[in-house]
Amino acid sequence: xxxxxxxxxxxxxxxxxxxxxxxxxxxxxxxxxxxxxxxxxxxxxxxxxxxxxxxxxxxxxxxxxxxxxxxxxxxxxxxxxxxxxxxxxxxxxxxxxxxxxxxxxxxxxxxxxxxxxx
Amino acid sequence: xxxxxxxxxxxxxxxxxxxxxxxxxxxxxxxxxxxxxxxxxxxxxxxxxxxxxxxxxxxxxxxxxxxxxxxxxxxxxxxxxxxxxxxxxxxxxxxxxxxxxxxxxxxxxxxxxxxxxxxxxxxxxxxxxxxxxxxxxxxxxxxxxxxxxxxxxxxxxxxxxxxxxxxxxxxxxxxxxxxxxxxxxxxxxxxxxxxxxxxxxxxxxxxxxxxxxxxxxxxxxxxxxxxxxxxxxxxxxxxxxxxxxxxxxxxxxxxxxxxxxxxxxxxxxxxxxxxxxxxxxxxxxxxxxxxxxxxxxxxxxxxxxxxxxxxxxxxxxxxxxxxxx
Lengths: 118, 325
Description:
The complex is a heterodimer. By secondary structure, chain A is mostly helical. Chain A is 68% helix and 0% strand. The radius of gyration of chain A is 20 Å and the shape is elongated. Chain A starts with a helix and ends in a 15-residue tail after the last helix. By secondary structure, chain B is mainly α. Chain B is built from 12 helices and no strands.
């Protein structure tokens, strides 16, 4: 049981990462691909935060009488990564809007013969 | 107990992700993605990352979901049936996943205080930062002071994202009489949002200035304030929102936040310290750190607010334009 508890978080991270990866390579719709990329990204966040956790520790805000804190460094890295993540998602979505306007579709398999359309 | 909560929440997260794969209705996919973000925020709280949870709840479940919905309004709601086989992607994913699972077995076990991650700089941050920086929230100390360079870089990335979105889409002003914008006819929504919006803005200011002592800071406050204005724009329509804060003004604001941040760095150099060395800002180093952190967090908050709102304006005005056509 302790073996499972020791690695459970990492296994779920791998599962989520592969779910996101699968959506990115198999979905036809570009919006769904972006959702897949976001799931992939969140799994990386989860990995970092899982590594920062200390059993018996508390949130890294100083409180009287607490000696064990979780690691604040992964929190800082991921906090900024989330905001940058939504910024890049916005750029991706605006590219999709432009693709829709130029090609009239956001399904990957429908672009193929439309290169001359622009 | 914490382990049990962790087990259940992570299982729910995995199920949500699994469902997203098979759904063809993109509206449902985006809604599930919102749930996915909220679940991740809960897991972050359970893993002691309160600041991160705050950010994920406001950004992931708030802004990303709204942006994806606006995009769906323009690109259509249904995903068409895939034509190519799913066997090759499945094979690639299974092989990669198996390799990664094999890799996790070499990871140090979850939660042990002796893990390599906790040996390097982290003990210094935990033991010294309350004395050196004088703030109880270590995440803010590391974010704004020790890693101030990095945060300046992130703010510039956010700023460049808005440049990217605006150069791809641009914000078009629609004339007031052109269309029925917003949801004016929904009276209940109208009244409720009028009560909520001031409270949300007040909360954003609290998060901004209380971030040194509790969870919060410029990134979260900027996003929450932007969410209040996005609600206003959704209910009352873009033209009325433009009258409150216009897109041109937001462009200046986004730049002003980054410049405010960088100018603190330049000022500390003028005072004889290194770039972003807040100790030189006041006679007492601790007071200098406080001034520095409050000003740069304000810069971050202004930039993030302006960028998020302007990105929404860009998407929203595109959607209204395609509605007219």
